[in-house]
Amino acid sequence: MARxxxxxxxxxxxxxSIEFHIYILPWLIGFIVFMFGPLIYSLILTxxxxxxxxxxxxxxxxxxxxxxxxxxxxxxxxxxxxxxAFVSVPLGLIVAFFLATLLNMKLRGIAFFRTIFYLPSVTAxxxxxxxWGWILNPSFGLLNYxxxxxxxxxxxxxxxxxxxxxxxxxxxxxxxxPSMIIFLAGLQDIPEALYExxxxxxxxxxxxxxRITLPLVxxxxxxxxxxxxxxxxxxxxxAYVLTSGGPMDATYVYxxxxxxxxxxxxRMAYGSALAWVLFIVILVLSLIVMGTSRRWVYYAGEGGx
Length: 305
Known about the structure:
Elements: H1 9-45, H2 62-70, H3 72-103, H4 110-118, H5 125-135, H6 142-149, H7 164-172, H8 177-188, H9 192-200, H10 205-232, H11 237-243, H12 254-264, H13 268-296
Helix pairs in contact: 3-7, 3-8, 3-10, 3-12, 5-11, 8-10, 10-13, 12-13
């Protein structure tokens, strides 16, 4: 029998595989050169005494020993960052969900309000932080002026150790736009028939929210929680621009400690060790949240929690 001119299925898939690897080769080279390579190099640096310039030698675990035993700013910065994360993330989720609920209403011109509420998230970070610095100024700031109109003497905010971190947390609410949009997408994915059936059965707004909205929006909540924790433990710009970690180290966050050691003092090896410890902390927290998600995240396609 004469052989057909049609290529075999195996040859077709082999050619498709070769083309696929050719297409992803630029990304793969970029990933190895600019991400994976520096990642491994930074891990190697943690076992050295490398400075920003000059020669270096291996010193084993000395950087980690210093970090956990003789560096008081390590624990201070880690506790400040944990305080910021464990307060700002839940507060941000509540505000984002509340705004998404309002913006999910079917009203005329609602698209305009969605744009307005999301707009702060795309503004320049440093410019917004400087604006907040003016708002929170204890002498001529807008916030204390508004409080004075109702007979309340505002605190020192960024100049008071008791109020500096709450002020940074308050600033974080300016950037709830991305979480709000994701919550809004999750709310719009809930079938209207569920609300209609509940209304027919006499369920009020509170019952519909607790029995329908919250369970069906838990996958979105889970995603926002993970991303919020990752972002919160990397807080840096607010403290760097406004307070430099003060007053009295009240806003001395982890990334500021890392930045100071690596780039101000030139201790690149110690800064790399700090970065890897932060990576492990974020990884552990993310795994804990993911491990508990089976108990409270509802996936409708899987038929339950």
